[in-house]
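Q: Structure tokens for this one, please.
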Amino acid sequence: MRQFQVLDQSAVDSATGILSLIARGGSASLALRREGEYVSISASLGALEIALRPRVRDLIRALRQLQPNDGLQTTRQVGSGDCFLGLGLRSDGTLILRPTLVGDASGYFCLNLTLAPDVAATLRGWLGDEG
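A: Here is the predicted structure, written as tokens:
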């Protein structure tokens, strides 16, 4: 059974442009920064980190296409077959994010994160209406 960590706080550093999404207590975090047509994502759980760099327009498009589905955890992926961000949306507005690195056919490494509805809205606002 998957255990999800809820990210329920957000902050934008106006000097660097970094959006930080943090779990209460700071055990898990997600930091995003726009770099041209890409968005750098650092997902951390304690000392573990997964770093991804998908295209901004692909992330925006995937978020726009999400439909609430409480039966499936993720319905969209942004990235490649080797590393991707799995996305899902629940009917209560909670956004599921699963940054994943695939090792080979025998396994993968993934963090199971959810964004509270207000934090998900902050992410969408930070990304803007491009794409």
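A few notes: Helices lie at 56-65, 117-127. The CA atoms of residues 91 and 119 lie 15 Å apart.
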